[in-house]
User: What shape does this take?
Amino acid sequence: MSQVLYHFSDRDDISVFRPRAPLRHPQAEPLVYAIDDWHAALYLFPRDCPRIGVWPIETTSAEDREWFHKQTDARILLFIEQSQEVTWRKEPLYRYDVDPAHGFFDTGCIGVWTSRDDVTPLGMTTLSDLPTQAELAGVEVLVVPSLLEQAMQFFDFETREFKTSLHVSMIRSSAIPDWPGESAKPIFGR
Assistant: This one.
């Protein structure tokens, strides 16, 4: 287990995290969410910024690894849409440290941990330069004209199958204009 987990927020005034259902999934069990260090870079964005993250995993084919390494030397390649770039570059973000021993359990989904208990943060860090934070985390962010077009390179919405053996995480994707996937359903692959 990680020594610390993180919760990212656009608020800097949280003294206790109380379990609640996600706003986009009000029927879900109320929980406190946190992310491990390796996957934390997926959350170096304003809350409502749709993004796609891809990276090689154990089962990634040689062909897909070659494609990935032609794109970047980073461990994760992230895509955001041009319409989100200014906000991403200018808005601060707050990273709260939480103790994983405080009732957290691993969901088995890309570093996400949850707790049914109230959680008091160990501390909070203001992240004011998100592009630099991404670079320090060893990830590369590409700004693209259309995140939907990027998603279609990795996922076939008709068959609901991935077109790549890379791991693909599409976060806040239902906020993308003309999103053909299920509303408020994140897509994680492999």
